Amino acid sequence: MAQHQAEVIWRRGGQDFLDRRYSRKHVLRFDGGAEVPGSSAPEVVSPPYSDPAAVDPEEAFIASLSSCHMLWFLDIAARAGFRVDEYHDLAVGEMGKNAAGKAWVARVTLQPRTSFSGDKLPTQEDLERLHHAAHAECFIAHSVKTEVLCQPRLA
């Protein structure tokens, strides 16, 4: 099986740390070399100890579900003979409390808007079938307990 890797790098620097007033800013480094600024969500830890401009774990989780779904959708659409011109998803995650009262990402709703060109254009039924197939193949969706919804839209 393929192995994937990500590094999470945080350094204390000159901060005291034990007073719990330290920066949550860090770097997410991926196996291909990309680096992304990371932080806790500002709703969890207030600025200046978090960075609202950085990617928080909840956003990264939602983005990974959306990205995986999109990649499968593109492949399945191409195999079905539909030419995709653009795919834009506004994925939204909703926090909740689990049975133990712990916070979790309870629901993720994908809202992909897709435009097509060429002689073969999908109907709404085709679009829903393609998205259903993409969801059925998505590795990330198979890996979580979070309910993942998909609300596809034609552009």
From TrEMBL:
PANTHER family: OSMC_OHR FAMILY PROTEIN, OSMOTICALLY INDUCIBLE FAMILY PROTEIN. It comes from the Bacteria. It comes from Chromobacterium vaccinii. SUPFAM superfamilies: OsmC-like. This is Peroxiredoxin.
